[in-house]
């Protein structure tokens, strides 16, 4: 800093006030590219540099990869959805016309796992398994797991009474029509907790009491705990779907449809406390860190991806699309 000031003073003595102004102007202009880049990336500047976005998302039924401000299309033909990064960031699991697929992060090496799924899958923390939901012995969504390598057959995780039952051979029903809220209400995406011990999913044994519910299941003993319930016993109607765990496992979010607009609810499993994140109409949140997340919102009548500061629910629009999942 002292050397820099000395140079400015030397320039002033040599060139006068005009010379000093020119030197200072050059120094100021040198800092502009980093700031401009930060604004173009749609994210906050950190030490003069833009926060890098690297996430996979859906647009027009295809998967795209966003790196900074550059997009790369990973699939074609439509029918793809619910992408999820593997824990090591090298692979992506996704649905394609109600079948479960895995591919490399660059879109190569696509592999059909041979499982019909009715909702998006999620990886076990060690990357060896994918959990997903499909119709089972109860008639409602049943949670299975399948190995991500080899040709192992899917096995039931929840509910316990369906254990040992094979995966139905019939293909799950395709996504139903209707309003966005109606489609989200029957979305069977699941989320595997970072500790590997719990999975959050729509439905469960609580459906024998309530019209709709969201459950946290314990993998070791197939125990279930309902954390959001709707209908039955005078409760408000609605749904809780598309769960997502925070990377530290201390919070769980879901998309709720108990009001006129969809909302994102963040839940504390330890205390039972809840709060709303983002704005009315937001959905499908996926955390990057405890403070940073991505979600789908509405802009100009279309689905857009937003970056969210969860500490203050500040939203920054990134680009048109939905179902974002940031790279670990």
UniProtKB/TrEMBL annotation:
Transmembrane segments: none annotated. Gene3D superfamilies: TolB, C-terminal domain. Pfam families: PD40. It comes from the Bacteria. Residues 1-38 form the signal peptide. Keywords: Signal. Belongs to the TolB family. This is Tol biopolymer transport system component. It comes from Catenuloplanes niger.
């Amino acid at each position: 800093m002292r050397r820099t000031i000395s140079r400015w003073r030397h320039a002033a003595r040599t060139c006068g006030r005009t010379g000093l102004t020119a030197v200072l102007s050059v120094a100021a202009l040198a800092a502009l590219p980093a700031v401009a880049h930060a604004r173009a990336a749609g994210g906050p500047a950190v030490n003069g540099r833009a926060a890098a976005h690297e996430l996979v998302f859906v647009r027009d039924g295809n998967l795209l990869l966003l790196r900074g401000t550059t997009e790369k299309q990973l699939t074609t033909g439509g029918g793809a959805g619910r992408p999820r990064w593997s824990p090591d960031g090298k692979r992506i699991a996704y649905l394609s016309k109600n079948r479960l697929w895995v591919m490399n992060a660059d879109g190569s090496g696509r592999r059909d796992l041979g499982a019909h799924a009715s909702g998006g899958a999620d990886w076990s923390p060690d990357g060896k398994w994918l959990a997903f939901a499909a119709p089972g012995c109860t008639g409602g969504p049943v949670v299975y797991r399948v190995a991500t390598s080899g040709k192992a057959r899917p096995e039931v995780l929840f509910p316990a009474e369906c254990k040992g039952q094979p995966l139905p051979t019939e293909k799950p029903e395709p996504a139903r029509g209707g309003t966005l809220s109606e489609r989200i209400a029957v979305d069977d995406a699941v989320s595997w907790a970072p500790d590997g011990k719990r999975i959050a999913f729509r439905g469960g044994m609580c459906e024998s009491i309530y019209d709709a519910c969201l459950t946290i299941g314990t993998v070791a003993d197939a125990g279930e705990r309902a954390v959001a319930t709707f209908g039955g016993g005078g409760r408000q109607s609605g749904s809780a779907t598309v769960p997502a765990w925070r990377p530290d496992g201390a919070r769980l979010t879901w998309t709720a449809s108990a009001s006129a607009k969809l909302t994102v609810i963040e839940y504390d499993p330890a205390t039972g406390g809840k709060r709303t994140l983002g704005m009315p109409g937001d959905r499908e949140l996926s955390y990057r860190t405890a403070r940073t997340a991505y979600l789908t919102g509405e802009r100009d009548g279309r689905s857009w991806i937003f970056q969210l500061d969860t500490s203050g629910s500040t939203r920054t629009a990134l680009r048109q699309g939905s179902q974002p999942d940031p790279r670990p």
